[in-house]
Amino acid sequence: MSGTAESGMTMERVQPGDAETHSMDVVAGNVEQLKALFPDAFVEGKIDFEVLKQLLGGEIEEREEKYGLSWHGKRRARQIALTPSAGTLRPCPQESVDWDTTQNLMIEGDNLEVLKLLQKSYAGKVKLIYIDPPYNTGKDFVYADDFQDNIRNYLALTGVADSDGTRLSSNTETSGRFHTNWLNMMYPRLRLAKNLMRNDGVILISIDDHEIENARIMCNEIFGEENFIACMIWEKGRKNDAKLISVGHEYLLVFARSQATLRDSGVTWREEKPGARDIWDKYVELRSAHGTDDASVEADLQAWFKSLDKANPAKKWSRYKRVDANGPWRDRDISWPGGGGARYDVLHPATGLPCKVPESGWRYAKSEEMQRQIKIGLVAFREDHTEPPFRKAHIRPISGESDTNGQDGYFGDAEEPEEELAVQVRGSYFYKQSQVAVRQLRELLGEKAFNNPKDHMELSRLFDYVTAGDPEAVILDFFGGSGSSAHAAMEVNVATSGKRRFILVQLPEPLDPAVGDQRVAARYCEALGKPGNIAEITKERIRRAGAQIAGTHPSTEVDLGFRSFKLDASNIRPWNATPENLEQETLDSVDNILASRSEQDVLYELLLHLGLDLCVPIEARVIGGKDVHAIGGGVLFACLPEKITPNNVEAIAHGIIDWHKELDPIGETKVYFRDSAFTSDEAKTNIVAILEQYSEPESQVKMIVRSL
Q1: How far is CA 526 from CA 106, 157, 510, 520, in A?
Q2: What's the pTM?
């Protein structure tokens, strides 16, 4: 079949500025939202602020002096977050683990640009963000003096390109803008991170005394003061070399994307009481030994509690020393908290007389609820009616057991215990000695190649706590460091049979073997045969952590791999014509794609700019002698070889059509070709004509054909 010049469908070439050439335009998105909310405030496509102010009534703050955090460069920092990126993420399968099946990502690059590039694909999809950013100690982060082209800054930092005068340096206390530089670094990144969060998403930020005040106020502005959840304190141990006071703690700021949404979702954060599982396991052992003899089980359980060391977490819960058919239990108050509870008769089973009513009334508002609690064995009576009974709290709560004033319903058979053990809400303070993480990472890597790593087991506990109701949550860490977050995500998945995904971003900051605190890390990378930068340590830690978990849990089906990507300038050649270079630019623009880039490079840039997940299923077939890719079950096809002749056209076009029929995707399908690949206009016209005939209106198929 041949195409004709009169064909209705055309193959439009992607132009600079098209969606396929850049990351999300946040400004345009904001304007569209405003237009939807306040169409009256737009005149010929522009915002009329006077009208907008009228529509907002008294909600406009116009005072010259107002509360807030201000610093030199804040306006530019805000603008940087709104500027689209012209970069891309280049796939590195050879550096990855389980490339074909994993859903995890490890991205090497400047996190500012990476966050921009992730906007289309991951906006509103991240449940939990954890970051351990530089604490601004005077030498712990690198910043650029030139913010106009962050891709150029990044390539200069990594030695890929000349800096053209851009100065990259550490932020020292003598710079004159010590806090300012840190705020300018953090502000746009947090702005962009917020866009990636789900409405019920949460961000955890590790920080210390250097910037805690600024971080808190900055987050109040970005996330809203009403979305502040807590400022947790992580005690890591005393430093005996301190001159005055040993400051051994750090902070963990906790903010919600929308605390109202989080609360409305009905989710409550709880964690298993430390030691509760040990108590249950001991009970099961004793029950197996003594059968239905509750008294013997109880006596041996109490003896076990007494034998425990004070440091054993189970010792704290030794009140669970009584036993019935549902397991260990402790007593708890049966009166209404605060007074004003209901007053009705509860008959003692032995004396038949009404039990004494607690001074503040019964905890259960209705007599029927009290009788239900008694029936399922959750009320324990005293010897006679002269004292109120008490409630039972089991180490593994049974169905219908409640601590909500009896307002919940009955959810199942009382005889069948639920899977969860006794739980508790976390406090804002916790202790974990910092040297534990240092030792664990040294054992994993074989060298002390990273200073001050975060404790992955504590992070695992936090991740479980925040995402317990969402075992498929996406967890993002854009200051990846030693890779503790990835390790923690894998650990919590193993413990809970979860499918949480991690996305890590780490700058490949060079390691200098001549600098004391970098020497070991630089030599470690050299011994691995890897470039000497921090991102290589991050990747190696994730590889080894996955292998260690697989060795400890050989039957696990948890995703222990990751796809590796590296930030780079776009694969699509920019148009930079000037009167002096117009002729050369015109010749170069014949092929939009940079000569050094592969089909896979271009394919993943398409995914980013079209808003598809970087782990979306991709199938490949050889059709007409050329590689063709089907992405996302057929929502996108790409055929990107360097040469397509008239002899290839029919086979490629019909092969795509047959494949599309197999996949039968819903909605429109986009098909991309490399514009310079067609050796003649006839080849391009014919392939468009064949695809057009397949996608005629009566076929209910819509294909959009474009070239790069």
Answers
A1: 21, 19, 12, 10
A2: 0.84
